[in-house]
Write a structure and sequence with these properties.
Blueprint: E1 18-22, H1 28-40, E2 45-49, E3 54-56, E4 62-64, E5 67-68, E6 79-82, H2 88-92, H3 95-106, E7 110-114, H4 118-124, E8 131-132, E9 146-147, E10 152-155, E11 158-161, H5 167-177, H6 181-190
Helix pairs in contact: 1-5, 3-4, 5-6
């Protein structure tokens, strides 16, 4: 039986870190929950600030990035994650972000976005014909994709999440995509889910 494209997984998780783009106005839950879960799973994550190392989120929480986006070489990362919130429109309109998304996608690496951040995936042209989920108010803006209503959606190398309340599920979906399904099951128990 042939695997559906939504069932495709990488052959093995890379030792290269994942890149998380931190843009002013990011939704704090959508950054912290997935990064926390990935690190608990032993998956390295590097956070890159779009404009500075100190980045203020949508609700006034300032976090410090590990590096600046201008210093990122996409070849050194195993994928990219875009937290949403009000930052989503800046991500969509920033050529450097779109370039990284296109490079990661062309290399078959993980491309992930949550909430309204799939707007950047649409602008980069990487979700045409793909199943994605997103914040309801931007659904109509993802004209090239097939938008579903699930909390998370994985289609080949594209992983998307619906919004803040799906942030933990998004993190677990990323872990499963990266070949850590058994560890995700254990972590869910340890974190008192189910």
């Amino acid at each position: 039986m042939t695997a559906l494209k939504t069932d495709l997984k990488p052959e093995s998780a890379s030792a290269d870190p994942l890149l998380v783009v931190m843009c002013p106005g990011f939704e704090e839950m959508e950054l912290t929950a997935p990064v926390d879960i990935l690190r608990r799973l032993g998956i390295p994550v590097t956070m890159a600030g779009l404009q500075s190392r100190n980045v203020e989120g949508a609700h006034g929480i300032t976090m410090r990035a590990d590096m600046l986006l201008v210093d990122v070489d996409s070849a050194c990362f195993s994928g990219v994650i875009l937290p949403g919130g009000p930052a989503s429109w800046t991500l969509r309109d920033t050529p450097a972000v779109l370039k990284i998304v296109r490079e990661m996608n062309a290399a078959g690496k993980l491309v992930a976005a949550i909430c309204a951040a799939p707007l950047a995936l649409e602008a980069a042209g990487v979700i045409k014909g793909r199943r994605v989920t997103c914040y309801p108010s931007v659904q109509a803006d993802l004209a090239s994709a097939a938008v579903c209503q699930e909390p998370t959606c994985t289609d080949a190398n594209i992983v998307t999440g619906k919004g803040p309340c799906a942030a933990a599920e998004f993190g677990f979906a990323l872990g499963c995509y990266l070949g850590k399904s058994e560890e995700v099951t254990r972590l869910r128990r340890e974190m008192c889910q189910g």
